[in-house]
Amino acid sequence: MRIQATIRFVSILLLAVGVPLTGQTPAQKADLILVNGNVYTVDDAHPRASAFAVRNGRIVFVGSDREARFLAGPATRVVDAHGETVIPGMVDAHAHLLGLGTSLRNVQLAGSKTYDEVIARVVERAKTTKPGEWIQGRGWDQNLWPDRKFPTHDALTRAVPNNPVVLTRIDGHALLANRMALEAAGITAATRDPDGGRIERMPDRSPTGVFVDNAQGLVTRVIPAATRQQKRSAILAAIAEANKWGLTGIHNAGESRSTIDIYESLAREGRYNLRNYVLVSGDSASVNHYFRVGPRSALYDGHLWVRAIKLYADGALGSRGAALLAPYSDDRDNTGLLVTPPAEIQRIATTALRRGFQIGVHAIGDRGNRVVLDAFDAALKAVPTADHRFRIEHAQVISLADIPRFAKMGVIPSMQASHQTSDMRWAEARVGPERIKGAYAWRSLLNTGVVIPNGSDFPVEEVNPLISFHSAVSRQDATNWPPGGWYPEQAMTRDEALKAMTIWPAYAGFQERTMGSITPGKYADFVILDRDIMNVPVTDILATRVLSTWIAGKPVYERR
Fold first, then answer.
1. How many CB atoms neighbour CB 494 within 10 A?
2. How far apart (Å, rounded) are the C-alpha atoms in residues 474 and 395?
3. Beta strand pairing status for 247-255 and 275-281?
4. Are residues 323 and 414 in the same domain?
5. 560: pLDDT confidence band, cut at 50, 70 and 90?
6. Domain count of the chain?
7. Residue 192: CATH number of its domain
8. What rounded mean pLDDT belongs to the chain?
9. Are residues 129 and 19 part of one domain?
10. How many C-beta neighbours within 10 Å does residue 296 have?
11. Which domain holds residue 21?
12. Residue 432: left (phi > 0), alpha (psi -120 to 50), or beta?
């Protein structure tokens, strides 16, 4: 320790008198220096600091204010953090960028307390929409309504008879269509349920208007596609929204080739203020194209990665499409839906290993999770691969017998803490008191040695990553319910929760050497907050505001 201290002291003296150190000359001054900060680096070798310096978009020094100022030159920008908290740029490990952009311009239904409220919001939009034009919305959740039942289209049809209307459920795994939309899609009582999908029906077999999982495609196929320019505008709006909440990166969970092409176009133009780890949509055309191209990383100065594939095993718990090993506790004739044949998951996973791609598979129910683990196991036996970092997206309800398999197989549970606080009022009714022990089970998984990259699944949940941070440490919602937390023994520590939205997403995207912590050599992505989320009372976490968001040492959002 004395030797290290002596070396550090001598280094500081040499800097002070202008003597260059290895790899540094007097001309190599910093572009940016942040001082007077309460810096949580998420670097176990140097966890706290007050200052750091940036050159050419990367961190070059982390330490004290005095040391950092030695790197100042005439052109250096010095940012005084005024004692505010600074953390690495936050990364949402499971999000839908275009989905967010689209939802920002559609009818907002999240938080609707009744079906009547949903209809009222649609009626308001219809007042400014031409007859015959499609109206789309997202965010309804029947679990928040008094009767907790799926709606039927009748009331919506009466209220909005002159526009086809499609309203997507909060989780994206069910939609409600009015009569005009049903007629446009040619759907009748004779229409058959597709594989992996379910049409909710009246006693006479006519459609109620609700379509679950793969059945949604029967309706969405006739909705006019957005133009390329509309998509570009939506994506730019979504990026700005993400930056506002302190996000410098996301893992984009399933995107088509055409949308990825737009991402690349914006990145080439220098208009892409986000680091996006893209998981390619599992449709065969997109998968085959990117398998031919091969994995690509850190494109356009570290703004895009295209080296992973997104598949779906089952549906969602809220719409009773999650695949369960035994029937739903509140629907004894239903075990959910497998939306992709297990053999197909295994085939694509095996090919991915051969082509150097990662796989992330949506699995929510305990049967869905087991199917994916079994498919991964078979693929790894066919193509033994170390450090594959295969992922299960959501890993929401897991059989207790399957929890140890994640660590044993090297599979990453990519989870969203805010799903727990959104679902906790009704989740146990779905699966009962025994299966709930393996649901949203962060501590049980962490204790096996895995990491859990956290996310929001936006636009399913709100964009703000601090909602998931709060959920992770409190197991409570924004009203601080329930007292003491819901199954509080499964909570994360604050240190774990911070890693879950910084260095653990970086690891899940093979990016831990270039991002995820404030460490020399890594991208200078960081966020300044107006309070210390690592120490304030839990009840104050959600009052935290982002003061500024920085990517590569440049501000992409500053609060006015």
1. 17
2. 20
3. parallel
4. yes
5. confident
6. 4
7. 3.10.310.70
8. 94
9. no
10. 13
11. 1-83+517-560
12. left
